[in-house]
Specification:
Shape: globular
Structural class: mainly alpha
Radius of gyration: 19 Å
Distance between the termini: 22 Å
Largest sheet: 2 strands, antiparallel
Strand content: under 5%
Order of helices and strands: HHHHHHHEEEE
Helix content: 40-55%
Length: 224
């Protein structure tokens, strides 16, 4: 029998990244979901590898959440409020810089189209601050973001009231895809740490990892 090791997980994570970059979101979600189920079986060679595995667990959670939000965005495309909110939450998933660039570009376009100029300006600024935006291959996007920022600052208002405050720390409710701001009550999955505002989700199956019970108090993933 061949035990799972860190290199197996690194390869699977990279596959997930490639699927995400290529827009193959179902394949991407499946890749990260597989990693989540395999992580507890990985044989690590010391504490450093154990810490890397814990980081991979967080990566899987963030990408699966992002993909689920992406699906909700498609369903809410005709709703200017909800589509703008979801695109905003999408940019708060902890993604690789190249993938965050894609998320910010999408959110900027959605907010601007729906005349939510305050948040459109915010996304444009965040986009322009990304190191990769200085690259020549992103010259066209850099020009577009600059124009959106200038126009949005001129308009300086939101057409719709949004449940989104970028100045506050929040986690994303993995059931409703709404923000859970710091200090608000919530229950979490003890394995992948997905958060849920509805305490009635306790003792139910986590919607992210799909195999751990929400709200059960355990020490989570143990590494040697």
């Amino acid at each position: 029998r061949t035990p799972l090791n860190l290199q197996h997980m690194v390869s699977s994570i990279r596959n997930g990244y490639r699927f995400f970059q290529g827009g193959k979101f179902n394949d991407c979600r499946a890749a990260f979901a597989t990693v989540l189920t395999q992580i507890p079986l990985v044989v690590t060679m010391g504490r450093n590898e154990g810490n890397e595995i814990k980081e991979m667990l967080s990566i899987c959670r963030e990408y699966i959440t992002a993909i689920r939000i992406k699906g909700e965005m498609a369903a809410a495309a005709s709703n200017p409020v909800r589509s703008t909110e979801l695109s905003a939450y999408f940019t708060h998933c902890d993604l690789q810089p190249v993938h965050l660039l894609l998320a910010l570009r999408s959110a900027m376009g959605t907010a601007f189209k729906n005349k939510n100029f305050i948040v459109a300006a915010s996304f444009a600024r965040r986009l322009l601050e990304l190191p990769d935006m200085s690259s020549e291959r992103n010259a066209e996007l850099r020009s577009k973001a600059t124009k959106v920022l200038q126009k949005s600052e001129q308009m300086a208002r939101n057409e719709h009231e949004l449940n989104y405050d970028e100045s506050k720390t929040f986690s994303i409710d993995c059931q409703t895809f709404m923000p859970i701001y710091a200090g608000q009550p919530s229950v979490t999955c003890s394995y992948c740490e997905s958060a849920y505002a509805d305490e009635g989700m306790a003792n139910k199956l986590c919607l992210t990892c799909g195999f751990c019970t929400i709200g059960v108090k355990t020490i989570g993933l143990v590494t040697g």
